[in-house]
Amino acid sequence: ECYVQNTAREYAKIYAAEAEPLEGFGEVPEIIPIFLVHRPANNIPYATVEEELIGEFVKYSVRDGKEVNFLRRDSEAGQKCCTFQHWVYEKTNGSLLVTDLQGVGMKLTDVGIATLAKGYKGFKGNCSISFIEQFRALHQCNKYCEMLGLKSLRSTHQKQRKPTSTKSKTLPNSPTIKKTVPKKAREPRDFISSEH
């Protein structure tokens, strides 16, 4: 728990260093540190300690990305959390995602990290790889993504379609015109007519 949150905290510091100088960006989310305490005389010898957050506790993103959260979408803190996720995703070439962002205002705690199956630079997260796939499919860029110059995930996550095998058919009364029809067309736009 400490390792995951403090790793995410380091990414948040780098994100802040890039975002804060941008005109109009403003305050950035901060992941608070968490510490492991050894208490040998106690029945539970280990505990974690972190700053107490006072105020309304909000989940800006959930681990599996399925929950629609209006505070995430509409609030400044929520949008900046989504941008932070996008930034980390892009910086790690889609290999790591900080998720389960929650807290009070811009102070976040109890975050999760998803990595590809093999991990990222020796680090394995505590969330399923499916969270990365869901984020890639569901993330909607906002003005903060644009301010940081992040690439839209809509164009980068769409799978490259494999060329389908085609059959050439000669149309009646026209030996020079052929119509190319994909073997299996999924949408009307997949039909392509060409002159040869």
TrEMBL record:
Biological source species: Asarcornis scutulata
Protein name (Swiss-Prot/TrEMBL): Alpha-protein kinase 2
Domain of life: Eukaryota
Keywords from the UniProt entry: Cell membrane, Disulfide bond, Immunoglobulin domain, Kinase, Membrane, Repeat, Serine/threonine-protein kinase, Transferase
Family, similarity comment: Belongs to the protein kinase superfamily. Alpha-type protein kinase family. ALPK subfamily.
Catalytic reaction equation(s): L-seryl-[protein] + ATP = O-phospho-L-seryl-[protein] + ADP + H(+); L-threonyl-[protein] + ATP = O-phospho-L-threonyl-[protein] + ADP + H(+)
UniProt feature, compositional bias: Polar residues: 165-177
UniProt cross-references to SMART domains, sorted A to Z: Alpha_kinase
EC number annotated for this UniProt entry: 2.7.11.1
GO cellular component: basolateral plasma membrane
Task performed by this protein: Protein kinase that recognizes phosphorylation sites in which the surrounding peptides have an alpha-helical conformation. Regulates cardiac development and cardiomyocyte differentiation by negatively regulating Wnt/beta-catenin signaling.
InterPro entries: a-kinase_dom, Kinase-like_dom_sf
